[in-house]
Amino acid sequence: MTGELELRRLGYDHPDAAELTERVQRYYVELYGGPDTDPLTAEMVSPPSGGFVIGYLDGVPVAMGGWFRDPDDPAGTAKIRRMYVDPGVRRTGIGRRLLAALESDAARSGVRRMLLATGRPQTGAIALYRRSGYLDVEPFGHYADSDGVVCLGKTLEPALLH
């Protein structure tokens, strides 16, 4: 695949999101021994309280990610969920561009702070998030009690609103 990355704002119930979700769940089974059990629905990552993006190369879905407002802090905080880039196209800038698109989309909706949780074995993802300005925060969410979770947060720049 050599084409330009195209990011499309689609629903988590889109067939391409379902295909990518199957891929990421297989990846989690290989990496962790089981799938991600933290529930996510299309409604959670739908406007006006969320968003979902699928990345395409040459018309093929290769990446996805979503965000939704934290129900405990609906005015200012959102959580990133189901961010995934196919292994064959990692380390090409797709993850960085996808993350920036999610942050920008959330900022335009009034979000001021992003949170995310990932696993310690996902060192490439952790490095991407840290390079993008994410810092350690207190564990939260479905996996908060897991020794293997890494929770990160970032205050969004006002420039993202433009």
Automatic annotation (TrEMBL):
PROSITE patterns: GNAT (PS51186). Residues 5-157 form the N-acetyltransferase domain. Pfam families: Acetyltransf_1 (PF00583). Gene3D superfamilies: 3.40.630.30. SUPFAM superfamilies: Acyl-CoA N-acyltransferases (Nat) (SSF55729). Transmembrane segments: none annotated. Keywords: Acyltransferase, Transferase. Coiled coil: none annotated. InterPro entries: Acyl_CoA_acyltransferase (IPR016181), Bact_Acetyltransf (IPR050832), GNAT_dom (IPR000182). This is GNAT family N-acetyltransferase.
